[in-house]
Amino acid sequence: MAELVERCAWAKIEVVTADERDLAGRMVLNLGHSIGHAVEAAAGYGRILHGEAVAHGLRGALAVGLAVGLTSPHRAGRIERLLATAGLAQRPPGVAEGAVRDLLKRDKKHAGGKLRWVLPVESGVEVRSDVSDGAVEAGIAAALGAIRQGDLA
Hints:
Blueprint: H1 2-18, H2 33-43, H3 50-67, H4 73-86, H5 97-104, E1 110-111, E2 114-115, E3 117-121, E4 124-128, H6 133-144
Antiparallel strand pairs: 1-2, 3-4
Helix pairs in contact: 2-3, 2-5, 3-4, 3-6
């Protein structure tokens, strides 16, 4: 686990160094953060750890990606298994859907009136703004629901 954390930290350093002013490339570091930040805020900062909230947000991003046809079921299943192995986001965070929905409207990743979503694809992530309300609702529901063994495709 320590090696994995170190490798991730170095990857983040490389991304941030390449885009120090947050003009474009750093956006990829926000995978799981839109719904994750909303979950964290809805829970009351300190009641849920940032990393745990982002893990719930990652589950939400998987559902959004699946709903818009960008994330493959294979990729989603692999990430779900990684969350389970790490013991992250395995129980509902206990926050209201309405609160998460309202907080998403204030997310800092809005551009031109649309929230920019960082969604998993086979080779990494893709940033999209053309996400339907239905896909967002699927993401919120997935982030706030309990994981069931049968869901680990």
